[in-house]
Hints:
The protein is an alpha/beta fold.
Amino acid sequence: MTFEHIRLEQSPAAVATITIARPDRLNALSGQTVDELRAAVEESGRSGARCLLLTGEGRGFSSGADLATGGGLPDDVGASLEKHFNPLLEALFELPIPVVAAVNGPCAGAGCSLALAADIVIAARSAYFLQAFVNIGLIPDAGATWLLPRLAGRARAMEMMMLGERVPAEKALEWGLIARVVEDGALESEAAALATRLAQGPTVALGLIRKLAREAGHVPLREALAAERVAQRAAGRSEDFKAGVAAFPQKTPPRFEGK
Length: 259
């Protein structure tokens, strides 16, 4: 697929990087942009990449849904969720590899949901997160009502969604929305180093970790324990587990191949 609104690149270290490339629109998410993102996510899962890094070009990650493109809003605003945004979030969650988001400025609306759907979010100190839907009479979407209470707890999630105010990077870190805050000039290198580290890890185990963690919030303990049992069997049959066990007595770092 030829991309117009995004870039998809893969490094020698097996990191697939998807960059939203509409800096003139602050990386606003049109239907085409979202469809290209989904195609790139799916391609990353087939390409042999062992980690996916999401970021935005220019001065921000994404300003959210593009409300200025396409001749105005349809009568059924939710239709675009079913057609574009929901399949993207589902494709992202189904990936068998870890996902990192590097947030380099404003991260709003559906763009905020996209970033927070990553397994590890690293943000520039000047970045902020915003669920501004209520300011135009809409509800948070693209998975926000599912993600935010799980990440920040109900009280903070409700504050963020009902007040529609910016959450600066430092507060997002305090709330548990993100994992790290770094200086603006260090974001690109720090995110690349983190993604490379994950790409060099035990890919089977990492994929199972993200799956179990995602499901943990809505299954009882008995089911979670049973899921761990099944996942541990799969991880224990991986070549990476064998490499890890072999390296342990030697006190040397294992060389994981992602198999």
